[in-house]
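Researcher: Here's my situation. A collaborator sent me these components and asked whether they could plausibly form a single complex. I don't have experimental data yet, so a predicted model of the whole assembly would be a useful starting point for our discussion.
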Amino acid sequence: MNIFALEKFDDQGSRCTFYTVRWEEAVWSETDKYFDKYESDTDFERPIQELALFLTKKIGNDVGALEDFFRFEHTAQALPPSGKHRMGEITINYGNFPLRLYCLRISDSLVVLFNGGEKTAENAQGGKTSMVFHEANQFAKRILEALQKKDIYITPNEREFRYFDDSEEIFL
Amino acid sequence: MRSKVLQKILDKTPKDVEIFVDKYADLVLRINQILREKGYTQKSLAEKLEKRPSEIHKWLSGDHNFTLRSIAKLEAELGEILLEVPVRKPITEFHTHYEQTTYTFTVYKNLTPRKEKTEDWKYATIHTELNNVG
C-alpha cells in the first residue's frame, strides 16, 4: 500500500471532528471523491444531501458519533489508552438508504471517513462496494497500527490526530 | 476547515432535508435508548411484536421507512412516547385591547335650511336716574 495523508475533512462542528485519507499524489481525498461522485448524480442527489447533513449537523454538531449511528462490520481492535476502535459503516440508511460510507470510529468526537459506494448487497463486504470496503479496511489497519506504534497520537480532547513530533501533517 | 465538496453540497441542501435528517436521527436514538433502558434485545422485541428478528434489525438500524403504524406498534410495546406532535387549543381567543364598537350615521341630503324665529333689533329705552336712591 502506498503512502497516504491523514487529514481533516470537517472540524466545524462542536461535537466531532472528521478526518479523511488522501493518497500522497492525489489532489482529492477519498471522501471528497465519494461526495463528488454522487453530488452530480440526480439519482443520488437527495441521499448525498442527507448524508452531508447527518455528518455535519447531527454527528458533528448535535450529538457526536454515537455508536447507534454505526454498523460495525469488523472485529474490534483493542487500543491503549482509550479502548476499542472499530471499523464501521456510517448508518444513515434510513428508508432503504442507497449508499454506504465506510469509516473508522475512534470515539464520539473523532471519526476517520474513507470512501464508499452504492449499496447493492445486504452486507458491507458484498456487492459493488467490496473493493472499496477492502481498501477502507487497509486504511483503518494502517491508522490503528500507527496509533499502537505511537507514530501518531490522539490529542487529550480526542478531537485531533498528531504526528509523534506534534506535527499536524500526517503521512502513513 | 471543511471540505469544499462537502460545503458545496450543504449549500444546495433544502430545509426539508435538514428537518428529515434531524427527526429521523432523533427517532433512532430514542428507540435505541429505550431498548437499552428496558433491557430489550432485538430478538426479544421481535418476539414481543411477532416479527422476524431481521425485520426488527432493519427498523433499528434505519434500513426501514418508519410509518405512523410502525411507530405506534413500537410505542405500544415499549410503553413510551416516541413521537410527539404539538397540539394547539382549538378555541378563539379575544385580545383584551380590542373592542367591538358600532357607530350609526344618518345622512340627510338636499335639505333646505330651516327658518329660525328672529327678533328685530330695537333701540333700548333710556332710563332716567333715580333721585331717591342714596
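Model: Some features of this prediction you could bring to your collaborator: Residues 45 and 56 of chain B are 8 Å apart (CA to CA). Chain B has a mean pLDDT of 78.
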